[in-house]
Specification:
Aspartate Aminotransferase, domain 1, Aspartate Aminotransferase, domain 2, 3 domains, four-stranded antiparallel sheet, 13 strands, elongated, binds pyridoxal-5'-phosphate
Length: 467
């Protein structure tokens, strides 16, 4: 018998591994079926290694350890929490707004138990799903309201209701695309509205709208061009004037605010975005905005405006397909309630807390954690603390950045090592996402709230050989 065959014989059996003391935790965590499959796989890999000349068969403990690591890796959710150090606070690809604790608690309670979603507790009759947030939105905006899946749905539903089979007038300068597949002209055609473009990309005048209005006009639409700005020789028709034109023509004016805010953000050191109340006081009959942008809640689309228009929107059969579930309604209600106490909003609403965080605070953090980060990435990289600019994200105020502080990691051996570092950071138990910029990996610390967790995750980074 040659030594290779004897080494193969030394390999434990699947049964022996599973019956060992070491396997107890494996079985406990993953169950009989998955544990057996993983052990079988590890043993067949070990057999293959022995056949190509590996010297020693792995011990039972080693087989269990490999099976555990493999199952634990498969078990990790691709939706697990990560560190957003991109510098974009409302990052659409990273899930936008973080939900306030009060809203998380409300959502969890609604998930766990039955709730009076469409049930009127005062009389025991059927109730309205929207009623949980309608009064609150009226309190905050002064108008009637309804809520759907997201703002794209809000725009779709409102346009279909107001201008389905009719014309929707919009300025060429406002026919925007907002990342992904949201293009205003496409949404309009899917809403069954015929797009009537007026003006030019940079200039639109009141008479452009006036001469486009006719008996087939269903709505005049104003879109807040939140994610780009045309500069130089430009004219747009102010909302107030557009409202006069709409009133004359007896058609509703709809204003898609996108990231509409419920409060004036300038009190938190940010630039002023038009608020929902502004849009209404300027004469919009319908205003649409997102739940998970500046508002800081879960994904949702709000439609606020004139009572009879909201009623027509609620009668539209499409509403049923676009409605939100009890979990999000509970979170929305709790989020909106926080706005009743503006003084404590920045404390309670994570989005606002992150946006309002001072540069000095972030700089102090950068200096504090620099040595630990330098030691985690190893001597092949150099880490520096320096100023950078954060963005709000989600199309809000893209040109108005917020002064922040970052750790800039550069490689002593070129860009490839930096890309490998980015990859390793993404593979961590809790992934770390930065941005590559000007030959450095930038970790903007504005959104780093759990510093201890970050440092402990980072300690598991395999140090790099710069070669
Ligand atoms: C973001 C945005 C939308 C889409 O909102 P979602 O909530 O992402 O569906 C529509 N219009 C404008 C102007 C926006 O900024």
């Amino acid at each position: 018998m040659d030594s290779k065959t004897s080494r193969l014989r030394d390999l434990p059996s699947v049964d022996a591994v599973l019956k060992s003391n070491e396997a107890a935790l494996l079985l406990e965590r993953f169950g009989q079926k998955a544990a057996t499959a993983a052990v079988r796989l590890m043993l067949s890999e070990a057999r293959a290694e022995l056949k190509v000349g590996a010297s020693d068969p792995p011990s039972t403990a080693k087989v269990v350890e490999r099976a555990f690591a493999s199952l634990a890796n498969d078990d990790r959710s691709t939706l697990r929490p990560l560190f957003n150090l991109t510098g974009t606070v409302l990052h659409t690809n990273l899930g936008r707004a973080l939900i306030a604790e009060a809203a998380i608690e409300a959502a969890v309670a609604a998930m766990r138990d039955p709730v009076a979603l469409e049930y009127d507790l005062s009389n025991g009759k059927r109730g309205e799903r929207d009623d949980h947030i309608r009064a609150l939105l009226r309190e905050l905006t002064g108008e009637d309201a309804t809520v759907v899946n997201n703002n794209a749905a809000a725009v779709l539903l409102a346009l279909n209701t107001l201008a389905g089979g009719r014309e929707a007038i919009v300025s060429r300068g406002e026919l925007i695309e907002i990342g992904g597949a949201f293009r205003m002209p496409d949404i309009m055609s899917r809403a069954g509205a015929k797009l009537v473009e007026v003006g030019t990309t940079n200039r639109t005048h009141p008479n452009d709208y006036r001469s486009a209005v006719n008996a087939a006009t269903g709505v005049i639409l104003k879109v807040h061009t939140s994610n780009y700005r045309i500069m130089g020789f430009t004219t747009e028709v102010a909302a107030r004037q557009l409202a006069e034109i709409a009133t004359e023509a007896r058609v509703p004016l709809m204003n898609d605010l996108g990231s509409g805010s419920l409060i004036d953000l300038s009190q938190f050191g940010l630039k002023r975005e038009p608020t929902v109340r502004d849009a209404i006081s300027e004469g919009a009959d319908i205003v649409t905005f997102s739940g998970d942008k500046l508002l800081g809640g879960p994904q949702a689309g709000f439609i606020v405006g004139k009572r009879e228009l909201i009623a027509a929107i609620n009668r539209n059969p499409m509403k049923r397909a676009l409605r939100v579930d009890k979990i999000r309604l509970a979170a929305i209600e709790a989020t909106l309630k926080l706005y009743r106490d503006p003084d404590r909003l920045a404390e309670r609403l994570p989005t606002l807390r992150l946006l309002a965080r001072s540069q000095a605070d972030i700089a102090a953090q950068a200096k504090r954690i620099l040595p630990a980060v330098q030691s985690a990435v190893g001597p092949g990289f150099s880490v520096q603390a320096r100023e950078c600019q954060s963005q709000i994200g989600s199309g809000a105020l893209p040109l108005d950045t917020i002064a922040s502080f970052c750790l800039a990691i550069s490689s002593n051996s070129g860009g490839l090592a930096l890309e490998r570092l980015s990859t390793d950071l993404r593979r961590l138990e809790r992934p770390v996402i930065g941005r590559l910029e000007d030959g450095a990996l930038i970790l903007d610390l504005r959104c780093l709230t759990d510093e201890a967790a970050f440092l402990s995750v980072l300690a598991n980074l395999n140090s790099h050989d710069p070669a």
